C-alpha cells in the first residue's frame, strides 16, 4: 500500500481535491434547497438525507488524509526503532 501511495501520490492528492470540490458543489445545491424551503413549504427528507450523505463523504475524504498521516508516523516510528537498534548494536560491538 505504501509503495502504491508513493507511486501515485500526486494523482491521489488531485483526486482528493476533486472529490472535495465536487462535494462542496453538492453542498451548495443542498443548502439552496434547504434555504428555499418556503417555496416548497417544507424541508424534504431527501434534502436532509443528502446533507447527511454529503457530511459523511467529506468525513471519509478527510479520513484518508488522517490514515496517510498515521501510516507515515508508523513508518517514521519503525525507522526510529531500527536506528536505535543499530546504534545499540554498534555500541555493544565497540564497547561504547
What does this structure look like?
The chain has 96 residues and is mainly α. The chain has helices at residues 2-7, 9-35, 37-40, 45-94. The chain is rod-shaped and about 85 Å long. The model has no long low-confidence stretch (mean pLDDT 79).
Largest sheet: none
Beta-strand percent range: under 5%
Question: What's the alpha carbon Rg, rounded to whole Å?
Answer: 24 Å
Order of helices and strands: HHHH
Helix/strand/pairing category: mainly alpha
- Helical segment tally? 4
Report the count of strand segments: 0
- Oligomeric status of the shown chains? single chain
Gross morphology: rod-shaped
Give the % helix: over 70%
**What's the rounded overall pLDDT mean?**
79
Poorly predicted sequence stretches spanning 5 or more consecutive residues: none
Q: Could you tell me how far the N terminus lies from the C terminus, measured between alpha carbons in angstroms?
A: 39 Å
Strand and helix layout:
Elements: H1 2-7, H2 9-35, H3 37-40, H4 45-94
Main attributes of the structure:
96 residues; 4 helices
In brief, what are we looking at here?
The two termini are 39 Å apart.
Amino acid at each position: 500500500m505504501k509503495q502504491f501511495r508513493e507511486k501515485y501520490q500526486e494523482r491521489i492528492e488531485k483526486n482528493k481535491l476533486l472529490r472535495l470540490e465536487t462535494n462542496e458543489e453538492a453542498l451548495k445545491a443542498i443548502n439552496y434547497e434547504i434555504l428555499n424551503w418556503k417555496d416548497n413549504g417544507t424541508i424534504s427528507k431527501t434534502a436532509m438525507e443528502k446533507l447527511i450523505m454529503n457530511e459523511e463523504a467529506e468525513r471519509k475524504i478527510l479520513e484518508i488524509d488522517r490514515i496517510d498521516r498515521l501510516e507515515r508516523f508508523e513508518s517514521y516510528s519503525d525507522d526510529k526503532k531500527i536506528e536505535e537498534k543499530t546504534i545499540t548494536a554498534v555500541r555493544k560491538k565497540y564497547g561504547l
